[in-house]
Specification:
This is ABC-2 type transport system ATP-binding protein. GO terms for molecular function: ATP binding; ATP hydrolysis activity. Pfam families: ABC_tran. This protein is an alpha/beta fold. It has a domain of 65 residues. 32% of the residues lie in helices and 23% in strands. It is built from eight helices and ten strands. The strands form two sheets. It has a six-stranded mixed beta sheet with strand order 6-7-8-3-9-10, sandwiched between helices. The radius of gyration is 18 Å and the shape is globular. The relative contact order is 0.16. The N terminus and C terminus are likely disordered. Bound molecules: adenosine-5'-triphosphate. The site of adenosine-5'-triphosphate has 12 residues, from strand 2 and helix 1.
Length: 263
């Protein structure tokens, strides 16, 4: 990991080979309840990493720490080598987020939503417009640019939220259970959209979910349960480690508190 702590000079281009996200030894409690317990994981650049965990596992808490909604008082979190605590501007400018709750302005057009976000990130109007139209075209949504968001389907809104998160060209994209409430076809389209981005733009993706079908061979998988990392590796490695015949069986073993496999 590149150590840049205490560096007040302007951020430079991250070194080749640095992880998109590196989380080391992070613990977070709400009062007496520990939501995260010594969590370590990484998202290599150009990878699709699934953060797989049942309800209450700690996924949203982890996202809140990475995005600085909460202050991480233990361990360290680096985005592209930048410490989110010590170099928040450099870290957050490289980060795109799609939160669990929908956050588009329903009364504005798709394009205005995108431009508003781009402006907040310091992207100029013309460059923002170009980027928005390029991304919408890639996603087959260019003809909806001037429609009010209210008139889109739930799946299309989610895809626009992903486009919005990419407006400032982040190198790490966090998605917190993005497919909640979508039908199977929309879910598949969304996963395909994000996998395409990993391939075409080489960004690192952390995709939080509890839906095993969204994970595919070749993915990296981190299993989180009751605030602890229960497995961290590849899809194939996770199957091998647990002796499960498929990923569902492997996951159930890992989150089975009565089994030794969960240790
Ligand atoms: N603001 C809060 N105050 C108190 N407890 C909280 C708070 N936020 C989360 N928790 C608790 O922390 C634990 C982890 O919750 P978190 O929302 O991070 O899990 P999650 O994996 O995102 O779950 P879900 O899939 O249901 O969204 C849970 O026990 C939850 O009740």
């Amino acid at each position: 990991m590149t150590a840049r702590t205490g560096d007040l000079s302007p951020p430079t281009v991250p070194e080749a080979g640095v992880a998109a996200l590196d989380v080391r030894g992070v613990t977070h409690a709400f009062g007496a309840r520990k939501a995260l317990d010594d969590v370590s994981l990484d998202v290599p650049a150009g990878s699709f990493t699934a953060l797989l965990g049942p309800n209450g596992a700690g996924k949203t808490t982890l996202f809140s720490l990475i995005t600085r909604l909460y202050d991480n008082r233990s361990g360290a979190i680096h985005v592209l080598g930048f410490d989110v605590r010590r170099q928040p501007a450099a870290a957050l400018s490289r980060l795109g987020v799609v939160f669990q709750a929908r956050t588009l302005d329903l009364e504005l057009s798709v394009l205005d939503n995108l431009l508003y976000h781009a402006t907040l990130h310091g992207v100029g109007f013309r460059a923002g417009r170009r980027r928005a139209m390029e991304l919408l075209a890639q996603d087959g949504l260019a003809d909806r640019a001037r429609d009010r968001v209210r008139n889109l389907s739930g799946g299309q809104m989610r895809r626009v939220e992903i486009v919005r998160a990419l407006m400032h060209r982040p190198r790490l994209l966090l998605l917190d259970e993005p497919t909640v409430g979508l039908d199977i076809a929309s879910r598949a389209a969304l996963v395909a959209q994000v996998r395409g981005l990993v391939a075409s733009e080489g960004i690192g993706v952390l995709w939080a979910t509890h839906i095993i079908e969204e994970i595919a061979p070749g993915d990296r998988v981190v299993v989180l349960h009751r605030g602890r990392v229960r497995a961290n590796g590849t899809y194939e490695g996770m199957l091998a480690q647990t002796g499960g015949e498929d990923l569902s069986a492997a996951f159930l073993r890992l989150v089975d508190d009565t089994g030794e496999a969960a240790a």
